[in-house]
């Protein structure tokens, strides 16, 4: 009996579940809310993406603007540098020209001053040289004449003859010579007298006040010095006078 009961099927009855209408509506509402939320979320994502793209675009525009401004500034800076260089160069060149002209003018004045000093020095040198050359020439002539007279005393005779010729028309002529020259002149007395055509009385005297080759001629009308030293002295004075006249003409 017991096994018979155990093989019998047990039927379990299910009670029907009833869902209230308010819960269904609630689920539907929740679904709608979820859908709406999803839509809002997608819309937010879209807006954020658009905002991001807009920001990227504006950033790119800003960078391009900055690049353009930088390029423009670089060009402007180069132009300013070039302009400043040109102005500076022109100003420097002008200042350089003015300074160069001033220095050249100062150097020119200095050169003219040096030339004027050199010219004065040249004139003084030439002037002193002329006098020095003149003195050397006279001294040299004096030495030559004295040497010639020392080796050839007879060359003194023409000097005495020339002096007598100056007074040959006078009736009395007196000749004074140095003691060492007396013999030479006296031996030529006849020749000296012939100069006057033997019309004058010719007397020869010794004078120890005279230097060697000195000669003094006396006549009724005056006294004439005719010695070599006297003639050289007259020659020196005459030459100095000519040099002085040339200086005055300059």
Total helix count? 6
The termini sit apart by: 188 Å
Given the helix and strand composition, which structural class is it?
alpha+beta
Radius of gyration computed on alpha carbons: 73 Å
DSSP strand count: 4
Side-by-side strand order of the widest sheet = 2-1-3-4
Query: What is the succession of H and E elements?
Result: HHHEHHEEEH
Provide the helix percentage. over 70%
Tell me the fraction of residues in β-strands, as a range: 5-15%
- List low-confidence stretches: none
Q: If you average the pLDDT, what whole number results? A: 83
| Major sheet attributes | 4 strands, mixed
Overall body shape: rod-shaped
Characterize the structure shown.
Keywords: Bacterial flagellum biogenesis, Bacterial flagellum protein export, Cell projection, Cilium, Coiled coil, Flagellum, Protein transport, Transport. It comes from Halobacillus amylolyticus. Needed for flagellar regrowth and assembly. InterPro entries: Flagellar_FliH/T3SS_HrpE, FliH_Bacilli, T3SS_Stator/FliH. The chain is built from six helices and four strands, in the order αααβααβββα. By secondary structure, it is of the alpha+beta class. It has a four-stranded mixed beta sheet with strand order 2-1-3-4. The termini are far apart.
């Amino acid at each position: 009996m017991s096994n018979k009961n155990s093989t019998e099927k047990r039927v379990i009855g299910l009670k029907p579940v009833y869902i209230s209408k308010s819960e269904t509506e609630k689920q539907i509402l929740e679904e709608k809310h979820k859908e709406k939320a999803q839509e809002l979320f997608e819309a937010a994502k879209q807006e954020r993406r658009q905002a991001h793209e807009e920001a990227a675009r504006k950033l790119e525009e800003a960078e391009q603007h900055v690049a353009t401004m930088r390029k423009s500034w670089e060009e402007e800076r180069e132009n300013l540098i070039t302009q400043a260089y040109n102005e500076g160069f022109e100003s420097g060149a002008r200042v350089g020209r003015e300074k160069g002209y001033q220095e050249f003018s100062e150097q020119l004045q200095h050169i003219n001053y040096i030339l004027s000093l050199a010219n004065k020095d040249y004139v003084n040198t030439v002037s002193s040289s002329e006098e020095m050359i003149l003195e050397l020439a006279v001294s040299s002539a004096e030495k030559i004449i004295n040497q010639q007279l020392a080796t050839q005393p007879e060359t003194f005779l023409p000097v005495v003859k020339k002096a007598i010729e100056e007074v040959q028309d006078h009736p009395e002529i007196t000749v004074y010579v140095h003691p060492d020259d007396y013999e030479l002149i006296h031996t030529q007395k006849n020749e000296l007298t012939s100069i006057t055509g033997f019309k004058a009385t010719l007397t020869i005297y010794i004078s120890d006040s005279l230097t060697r080759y000195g000669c003094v001629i006396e006549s009724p009308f005056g006294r004439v010095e005719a010695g070599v030293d006297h003639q050289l002295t007259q020659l020196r004075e005459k030459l100095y006078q000519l040099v002085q006249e040339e200086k005055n003409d300059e």
